[in-house]
Amino acid sequence: MASRYHEVYDGWKRDPEKFWADAAKAIDWFSPFDTVFDPNAGVYGRWFGGASCNTCFNAVDRHVAGGRADQTALIHDSAISGTIRKFTYAELKREVIALTSVLKNRGVQKGDRVIIYMPMVPEAAFAMLACARIGAVHSVVFGGFASHELATRIDDARPKLIISASCGLEPGRVVAYKPLLDTAIEMSRHKPEACLILQRDQLRCELRENHDIDYADAVARERAAGANVDCVPVLATDPLYIIYTSGTTGQPKGIVRDNGGHMVALKWSMENEFGVKPGEVFWAASDVGWVVGHSYIVYGPLLHGCTTVLFEGKPVGTPDAGTYWRVIAEHGVVALFTAPTAFRAIKGQDPKGEFVPKYDLSKFRTLFLAGERADPETIKWAEQKLNVPVIDHWWQTETGSPMTINPAGLGLLPVKYGSPGVPMPGYDIRVLDDAGHEVPRGTLGNVVVKLPLPAGCLPTLWNADDRFRQAYLDEFPGFYKTADAGMMDEDGYLFVMARTDDIINVAGHRLSTGAMEEVLAAHPDVAECAVIGIADAMKGQVPLGFVVLNAGVARDSGAIETEVVTLVRERIGPVAALKTVVTIKRLPKTRSGKILRGTMQKIADKEEWTMPATIDDPAILDEITAALKGRGIGF
Predict the structure, then answer these.
(1) Record's PROSITE patterns (predicted)?
(2) Is the pTM higher than 0.90?
């Protein structure tokens, strides 16, 4: 079908308020809004002022009442424990109400904060929805996060209660959560009143008397007593949740999401951007601790009346590189959203895609990639093996849903490799130089969004309006700073090349490490790669490449490194000045799959560095250090 994108985007530009008012009709409101957008409220304005609503009502209750009671709402697929649990919308409502009753009996009410420190279990989603049901503000902290990181979030959010579990499951190991949680509470100045603990059979924990409550026991008691808790009306502008991102100062930034604008934006995105219909099965292979998990495991699919998959496993090793195809086939998934890292891992283990034909993927329509730059080679590999559109898109924790995408629901536009698509309604994206002037099309600069930000974006940071202004609004007045560098082409497609701190300055030339990584990834023997800028006395900075080779590659790594250097010279030119590429066994990553380039750069530059709290496996940094030392770098 011909794409309706330009017509829809132009319609938003002509009359933004009408666009969002129309989108808001898809949400059930308890009382209507006085204004669609009030430019005088909050830091830069607020959406749907005066309206009252409830996110849990829209995600659960209205579907039960509206004919979806017996439709599966949530599938928990644990590839690690080998178990599958399914919940219909009616069962989901029962679970959420019972848990809400537990919270209410512990004195949790509208406006109180609750920290959720959980593994990938259905109870994590129940906890989010239970908080939303009574207007409590949840803050999900990635399960297994280090105690110090959890403590900083406890002190900032000041939760009345913490909901956690005895353990999380990783391939080949069980992570005990309770000691991490207890240590965090010891370290924090603020002390929560109680902890609700889900005991998992893989590793049970001791519960502290008069402080820890057994989750299953407490919920079962409420269910047996026939507990019923109605959804509490909250203002559209009231906070639904706080999600923390790492701050450059070490103090995490508490990004606030409101109730009204968030629902409107997510509901609109499910159909128009992701092209998914109510009743279909949608799978975001992320973690509930990250924004993708909030938006597209829990809230987006449930607001839209879909079936959502909550997956506990990894793209490889649980048990093999065919896990994703098994989940898609078994549950009839129509669209998968994951990080490019996952596909690079699958491609590295199964370069020929031999697992794909073993599964029935006939219902599968679209693959969406986001979270980091999707290199063209990975996209082409996925297109070729899966024979479906592969859609790169771009957004941030701050925005809550895509800023740019190739919108499947409005009709796909031509694909441009390396571009995460075109701006979505609500986003007037510009590219500015450091002085704040717009640069010509095709020129690299700072990617910014003209204010106001659309419905669903952060209105501010938790208890930190000044920090919000300083972090996002002050540098380019009238614009929101994304801290990404990129360029816009003649057709309005955005190319996001790197975080602005990943633009390196080689002898006065501003070069994108993302562009170099694209070239490295194009080598047939390379599974994954990273490029960082390291200090150089002559040129200021020079690039240094790291490559991980495909499984089964038996060639001499030195020869491959030479070929990769030559390739960069051919495709980007001598100006790139990439002379050194180091072969390593694996790249250091966060648990959400982002490559820790900053830490690698500090090791190479012999700078002080601290172990990143989000690192998946700390041993990898020793491997990197040893590999660099072998080349005379960083010691």
Answers:
(1) AMP_BINDING
(2) no
